[in-house]
User: What shape does this take?
Amino acid sequence: MVALTPPALAVLLLTAGLLAVNAAQAEPDCLHFNQANNLYWGDLHVHTRYSLDASTQDTRTTPAQAYGFARGAPLAIQPWIDGVAQRRLQLQRPLDFAAVTDHAELLGEVALCTDPDSYAHGSLYCRTFRNFPRAAFFIFNTTAAGGGRLGLCGENGERCREAAREPWSDIRAAAEAANDDTENCSFTSFVAYEWTGASESLANLHRNVIFRTADVPSVPHSFVDGDGTVDSLFRALERDCLQADGDCDALVIPHNSNLSDGAMFPAPGTSAMGQEQAQRRRRFETLMEVYQHKGASECFFQSGVTEDELCAFEQLPYGTFSGKFVGWLSKPVKPDAGFARAVLRDGLAYAGQLSVNPYELGFIGSTDTHLGAPGAVSETGYAGHGGAGAPASGEQTGGLVDDLEFNPGGLAAIWAPQNRRDDLFAALRRREVYASSGPRITLRLFAGENIGAELCEATDFAEQGYREGVPMGAVLAAGERVRIAVAAAADPGTEQSPGVDLQRLQIVKGWIDEDGTPRERLFDIAGNPDNGADVDLASCRPHGEGFSQLCSVWQDPDFSAGTAAYYYARAVENPRCRWSQQVCVANGVDCARPSTIADGLEACCSAEHRPLIQERAISSPVWHYPEAATSKHQATTRNPTGPTTQ
Assistant: This one.
């Protein structure tokens, strides 16, 4: 790694939120309060035994155990033999926050089929669930995806809705027990669930609902309780949360838009979204999950067509999840299928049509683990997350522990003054967050025409950034020239698993030309994409150096005050061996010698296998709108001691 000069070290420490600043204007609750914001790592997409697709693969993790794992406790996972788990996991670095997000759909059905005293325990459905779990996975999920209830649920599904109360109560209690409300503020947990919607063509509409407080609805609103649209979820949250007595508040985070075939974020001209619906989306959906176990949703890649080769990162080979299981339902991956860059550009178009941008979205990553293992994102020792509803089989066969196209998932990074629910939730809402594909890369961004060209040399990087500009996730003032300061630091890793150097730092710009043509452009602003760093595939040993930290102040060379645009930063690591290649190497696979390819390891030598990856982190965007539109969009005010949102 490159050596750090004292000024650069100060920038790095401040970027990581480790330097104390004057907090006299605030009322801190935590010992590590920092008005210029600390960096917190977490996972907001976690399934336990209460989710059907986790339960049918013999996941036995409770919500309390999932939170314990996030805080550093060991976790026993399948396969189970005579009641004894054959594998154990433990995080080398605990998380700062997490949310258990079990599926609202089928929550009661799973509870009925696992309770020996329930009236439905002996039903054909429940016998299938216990004796043929893989069949139950498809039967139950297909019914729910169509908006229906199983026959055991009674009239209007009331029996299953009532049965959901007990697991929902346990989920809530586990979140309360895990939340550290002492002055140590060591861990934050959120009450949450997943709304698992599907379009008429079974394209993915899934969302995670995150509550700010413990004051939540008595049962989660599921897809089968509504009219089949995401707007029905927003209306239910307005009715049962925002307008209810108490202190309920919620955010909704869509995920796997890469599997939505464009249905998750309808493009202008393809839907009847009006201003009222757009406002509801804007109120609840301030974020999208772009990295997770079932692929990346940042940008589309097609060989020979896409200029940004880094978009090839963890792209699934099918465009809808149903296509994985049923060949005739398979759809190819398309550039307009829900990838973040296209969605952000569609948002700019909506802003011009409706005077509101329903897709002003920040970015996070998470795992979507179905083992109840939040934050288990290491490529080394990956145990599989079971997101396809099937248990990991590599331990028994000596093969790969997960389907080749899946990956360990990502993490959510939050900049907040302290590790409290209110503070983290406020940062999620204002989008001062970013997505990592797994590594704990530190990434900070400030934008505004007054950002100093020498900011990277300053010892008060964050203070100056807040004073002279706005942070990631904010809207720039109309007509303000776009100058962006970005600082990134490589994940140092741990003694058992050292981190990987950074290769480069980039800015992604998206806009719409006057003739309506969507455009994007990529700028390398620091580092070196041709640094020669590579990996020996036979041993997974890396060679070549990168950068321990990168910082740059960049100005848009093609800025136009009359053009709406978004900008975000991407920090990219040197190459490393993907989890699958690590398994192949550990098992001595040599594709030139067929005798070394044991059963279960054939995929190591398939054309689809990607042996190398370049992990990355991407900031939430900042937006610039023409003067006529700016007043209609959320703006973040400048504050020398930290961000406030109006």
The longest helix spans residues 340-354. The chain has 17 helices and 28 strands. Confidence is low (pLDDT under 50) at residues 1-26, 634-646. The radius of gyration is 24 Å.
